[in-house]
Design brief:
This protein is mainly alpha-helical and 174 residues long. It has a single domain, classed as Up-down Bundle (Four Helix Bundle (Hemerythrin (Met), subunit A)), CATH 1.20.120.450. The chain contains four helices and two strands. The protein has a two-stranded antiparallel sheet with strand order 1-2. A hairpin with a 3-residue loop joins strand 1 and strand 2.
Length: 174
């Protein structure tokens, strides 16, 4: 007689109504850890290369930062209010302005996030009139997008001969 167990397929997420893997508070703190690291990347990036340097056909890091800014707060605000607006201009601007916008967005996320009812995370929504999905999937997309573009920033900094901040130090404040 064998003592090995037979693997089973996990039930669909909808079968575990009310169960969650991560609390909304922990999800925000996880995201803010990524945001702290991305901010340190922006601080370390050379001003004169922010909107001019890229590798291959990728966009410059400054343009990627503007994309992140145009997604983060509008996604959370839309989740809370149902108003889906993202009208941020993506024109090149000084690093100090990007850092100010980053910090303002961080504060807005901290203010808006607690207003998301817990059940909202599992609801299917239509973000910006075109992106349908469960709220937590759409929020994770915004987080994943930031991580992806920050990775591009790491490649750029290394290509410029610079040492980027350690990727595993998301817990550090500025």
């Amino acid at each position: 007689m064998s003592t090995e167990s037979t693997p089973t397929t996990a039930p669909p997420a909808t079968a575990a109504a009310g169960a969650s893997f991560i609390s909304p508070e922990a999800m925000l703190e996880h995201w803010q850890g990524h945001r702290r690291l991305t901010r340190r990347m922006l601080e370390a990036f050379p001003d004169d290369q922010l909107f001019t340097f890229s590798v291959g056909s990728m966009r410059p890091f400054g343009a990627l930062i503007l994309e992140m800014l145009s997604m983060a707060e509008p996604m959370v605000r839309g989740t809370v209010t149902g108003a889906w607006e993202s009208s941020m201009a993506r024109d090149a601007r000084p690093k100090e302005e990007l850092l100010r916008l980053w910090d303002e967005t961080t504060e807005k996320l901290n203010e808006l996030w607690p207003q998301i009812p817990p059940e909202r995370f599992s609801e299917t929504i239509m973000a910006f009139g075109q992106y349908e999905g469960r709220t937590f999937d759409l929020l994770l997309y915004v987080i994943d997008n930031e991580i992806h573009h920050r990775g591009q920033g790491y490649v750029y900094m290394r290509a410029l001969g610079l040492e980027p901040p350690p990727f595993y130090e998301r817990h550090l404040d500025r």
